[in-house]
From TrEMBL:
Organism: Apiospora kogelbergensis
Source lineage: Eukaryota, Fungi, Dikarya, Ascomycota, Pezizomycotina
Alphabetical UniProt keywords: Membrane, Transmembrane, Transmembrane helix
Protein name in the entry: RGS domain-containing protein
InterPro entries for this protein: RGS_sf (IPR036305), RGS_subdomain_2 (IPR044926)
Domain of life: Eukaryota
Location of the region described as Disordered in the Swiss-Prot/TrEMBL record: 336-371
Transmembrane segments: 262-285, 297-319, 433-451
């Protein structure tokens, strides 16, 4: 399975360059290439609908983007947009008519690109229509409905590009040219979204090209129709599906934290080195060569541990269907600590618009049957708020985890890996490690047995 040979993401950087059309085209290509490598049960659509269990739930995806990739704006905008499209569908026709679809002829000229990611406006409009098919329409719309059933076709891209002074001037000009209509539905909300995610001074600025940014601002000045933010939507889709989701699935396969992985690698290196040292001593001695089989038993154990640790997997934890708690999962919120949740809780929607708390993760500690739930001081699933960097700095677990000793981090609390599809991928990696570890050990053992006795002592 090609997924097993993915290169793990580089150490994450907060500062990211301004993206171009070619960057988005690369993301689209990667999304297509990764589609066959990720099980359907762990697809982007299933995760965004919140139909997957930890460690691949929607909450886990948001945590990953918040604390690992520092790209949470992507999913936050994505969830809002899907919820917005669904709410727009439920408006009376009279209100819809007051805010018509954005006319593509008014969009600023887009430079020609040999690898255009957006295609024609009509094609993008059809894509927006397909969002409705991805939305979970099996349940009747409710004003308090959350974003868990949001569409999966709308990813969001969000880095923090720097815009030149000339760009700021053109953005201001685009605002002056537009004529806002206060009678349009969701006008205030749309304006706040532009200030939060589209404007270059927004706290959760998306990593958009200059052309896309201007196009969105011009469109929102004229209409609140979802098509006004279509350029941002298509850019977001490319980043989420082409980069964030594949990296998240690959990261979720790991069942160990970094200190435990390093410990496993050191232990494996010690076992392998000890096997070589004992075999070398037996070759130099006058003892029977068949005694060399005893130290050779250290090799398969060492190689299996070493190969599995390349994917962040501890074999011992996997055999017990366990995984280490993430640092942000280790500090339970009192509101949820006494109310265990069931797998069905993962399918219940989360209303980020109303600022409700995230649903607890249904994970059980190895030493307790009560769920271990981490709730941020500010819910990352909320569409509006301060910059996500401020969330990380204000989290209480950051300082407490840093004060933990290395020994406690290595033997961290473990919980059951609930997602059977993740366990299946882990089993595949462990079987692969057993196969290669066994073959390497057999080759080394054969070489040790064939070596002549030197009889030095």
């Amino acid at each position: 399975m090609p997924l097993l040979f993915y290169r793990r993401p580089d150490y994450l950087r907060r500062d990211k360059p301004v993206w171009t059309e070619d960057n988005y085209a690369d993301c689209v290509e990667r999304a297509e290439a990764c589609r066959s490598h990720i099980p359907e049960s762990l697809s982007f659509e299933e995760i965004v609908r919140n139909r997957t269990l930890p460690p691949c739930s929607l909450n886990d995806f948001m945590d990953y983007l918040m604390y690992v990739e520092y790209d949470a704006e992507c999913l936050q905008f994505f969830l809002w947009y899907c919820d917005y499209v669904e709410r727009w569908r439920c408006l009376p026709q009279a209100q819809k008519d007051s805010s018509p679809m954005w006319d593509p002829s008014k969009i600023v000229a887009r430079p020609e690109s040999a690898r255009s990611r957006t295609g024609s406006f009509n094609e993008n409009a059809q894509r927006m229509t397909r969002i409705l098919g991805i939305l979970d329409t099996s349940t009747k719309y409710d004003g308090n409905r959350g974003r868990s059933h949001s569409s999966a076709a709308s990813p969001t891209n969000f880095s923090r590009p720097k815009t030149a002074f000339s760009d700021e001037f053109q953005i201001a000009k685009a605002r002056r040219d537009g004529q806002p209509f206060s009678v349009q539905p969701f006008r205030e909300e749309m304006t706040r979204i532009v200030r939060h995610y589209i404007s270059t001074s927004g706290p959760r600025q998306l990593n958009l090209t200059h052309v896309d940014r201007i196009a969105c601002i011009q469109a929102v000045e004229q209409t609140t129709h979802p098509s006004a933010l279509l350029p941002a939507f298509t850019a977001a889709e490319a980043l989420l599906k082409g980069q964030c989701h594949p990296n998240f699935v690959r990261w979720s396969i790991s069942n160990s934290n970094r200190p435990r992985v390093i410990f496993a690698r050191v232990l494996a290196a010690v076992l392998i080195s000890l096997g070589f040292a004992l075999n070398a001593a037996l070759v130099l001695s006058s003892f029977s060569r068949y005694l060399r089989l005893a130290p050779s038993l250290l090799w398969p154990i060492g190689f299996v541990f070493l190969l599995a640790s390349r994917h962040g997997i501890c074999v011992i934890l996997h055999w017990n269907y366990k995984r280490n708690l993430r640092p942000w999962e280790q500090f339970a919120d009192e509101d949820f600590a006494s109310s265990p949740s069931s797998p069905s809780d993962e399918k219940k929607p989360t209303n980020a618009t109303d600022g409700q708390k995230r649903p607890p993760s249904s994970s059980s500690s190895s030493s307790s049957s009560a769920p271990v739930t981490r709730v941020a001081s500010v819910d990352p699933l909320q569409s509006f708020g301060s910059a996500n960097d401020a969330f990380f700095d204000s989290e209480p677990w950051v300082g407490e985890y840093q004060q933990k000793s290395t020994w406690r981090k290595i033997f961290e609390v473990s919980i059951t890996t609930q997602n059977e599809h993740v366990r299946a991928l882990q089993s595949r990696i462990v079987r692969q490690a057993l196969l290669w570890g066994g073959l390497i050990s057999l080759a080394l053992t054969a070489g040790a047995l064939s070596a002549p006795e030197l009889g030095v002592f």
